[in-house]
Each structure stands twice: as structure tokens, then as C-alpha cells.
């Protein structure tokens, strides 16, 4: 259900770290937002060094942009963003000063996955059961 | 007015399919949200296979992220997301289980195109007429 | 605190223009939204010509997508979008007809930078002072 995009400069993450970062984001989101891991999407968007600027100059941040269904309690979203930022810095070796996490949202009813409108937060179990019944 | 970004693994869409996908998204959005086709932007963001993860492992989804002006009725946005997902799966040959569509929004007054602040939904005709008068 | 992504066709901006565009966005956002320049992130996402469509056909727009903390007054966000669009067109030489700016938002409490939850608009000074005290 969620989609995370991690943007960073080419070469600042090794292949192993990329895999570990994607796996870590998946586990954290799955645990905290009650979504099976198979529904967590993570995209790693690598950029040439001259295409990432911080403060108007080339920089090497790790920018993590996530989308989740609207309606999760705000406290949980704050904890999710903190946990993602901490894990991303630890996994990548990029200092936490250069790691940014932003969670965007829109209504579950504005999103479709596997041909079906997504459920509001709290109604994941019914949605998943309907999917299995329909498969 | 809208911007759609389609993210997928390199090689999973042929050039013809890419064109057809962009054209299909354009037609559907134009018809359903009352925007002339020339104002629909579609970006195809191709990623190396190792940079797209689903469930913590490399995967081959088609992730479609759209932005539209806030204020369209929710039922219409839900129908739009369903129509886009159905057309994207049919055009791409990617099974609907692996196609995800998310529509984000923000106020029309937070967006500028052709040098002018965008109109709220329902006021497209006046905005377009003003543009022709000013050109 | 903000993240801007500029999407355009490869070759439509020279290296000098890319630097100038990133610097201009940084200065404008910093001045108008009361954020030190070092906290403004700008990503330049270059796409092959066949991967950017306008009106269902290949096109050469400059699409600028920004994220900012929710709670800035709407009038200020509108002025920000207008100023960014004007500067982007002037700097890039891309006609304003083909420049689009969209500002998205989510709660400051849904975002983490430098290991800390971002402050609501209007509380930047305390947040920055706390960071210096904690460093």
C-alpha cells in the first residue's frame, strides 16, 4: 500500500546497503502501519552528483519520501518517520544530519492496488481477506 | 494541470507501450477531470531492476503517482484511480496485482502553470479563456 | 526542510543553468518561507526525451514539485509558487507556458530531518536553536 522513494547520489550507497535499506523500510512500515510486507514498495532513485543540491550547492543527502493512506493517527506517523530516519542513517552510514524523511498522505479512496480501492486505516484485514476470496 | 509519474523497471515496457500508456493516462484524465489533453503531463521514470523493491525484494510493479488539484469530488477521484489502474494493466501487460495508482492533491492555489495560478475544479473554462485572451 | 524536484528532458538545461536553477529555488524558498538555505534540498531529475509527455506526445516541460510543511498561509504559498515559476522560466529559458510548479504539503510532524521532527511554520527559530544546543 505505501510507496517509498529514496533519493541519493550515485555511489553513496553500495548494492548491499541498497538492499538492506529497502528491507529495513519494508519491515518498519509493515510493523508500525499494519500492512503485510508484500504490499510495501520501495524505489531507489539514484542521481548524478551534480543533480542533488543542498543549500544551493551539490550535496549528498538521503531523502526519503513516503506515501501512506490518510487516517493513521498523527502520533504513529511521527514515530514512523523517526524510526525510518534512524534506520536509514544507521544502515547507510549517511549522518543523520543529512537524512530527511517526509510522509505524504491522501485518502485511501484515492488509491488503487491489485485492481481494488485501498481500505481506510484499520480495515486492512477485511480488504486482504476479500482479495484472497476473489483470487 | 495534472502531473503523473509512472515508475517501473527498465525493459518492462516497450517504447510502443510507453507511448500508449502516456496517451491512455492523458485521455482518461482529460475526459474524467475536465482538463484539455495539452495540460496533462506524464513522466515515465525507468529504474534499474535492483532499484525497485516490493516486500523487501526486487520486484516489477508499475507505480503510478498522480497529482491533481484539490476539490474534485472524492467519488470522481476514486473512479479516476480505478480507470487508470485498469488501463495501465491492460496496456502494459503487467498484471493488475502489480499495478498501483495513487492520486495526491493540493490546493489549486498552490500550483502555477503557464505563469498563472491554477483554477479550482469547476472553473477550468474561465481560466482557459483568460489564457487565450492574454496570449 | 523543503524538498524540490525539477523534472525535465535531458539536454534542455546546461550544467550552468542547472546550478543557477537550484540556487534560485533555494534563495526564493529560504527568503519567503523563513528557512535557512542549508535546509533547502533540490533534486534535478533528468529524463530521456521519449519519457516526458505533454498532451499525450513527447514534450519539453519543466515540472517543479515541492514539498513544504503544512501550515504556511495559503497566500504565501501562492506567491511562492508564482515566484518559483517566474524564476525557473527566466533562468532556464523554457517558456513560461511550459513551466509548472506544484507545492505539496503534509504536517511538519510527519517529517524528520537531522534526527528531529520538523517544527510547525512559525517555530523555526526555536527548532534551529535546539539543534545548535544539542550538537
TrEMBL record, chains A, B, C:
InterPro entries listed in its UniProt record: Cis-CaaD-like, Tautomerase/MIF_sf
Domain Tautomerase cis-CaaD-like: 1-130
A Pfam short name: Tautomerase_3
Signal peptide: none
Origin: domain of life: Bacteria
Gene3D superfamilies assigned: Macrophage Migration Inhibitory Factor
Name of the protein this chain belongs to: Tautomerase
The species this protein was found in: Streptomyces tendae
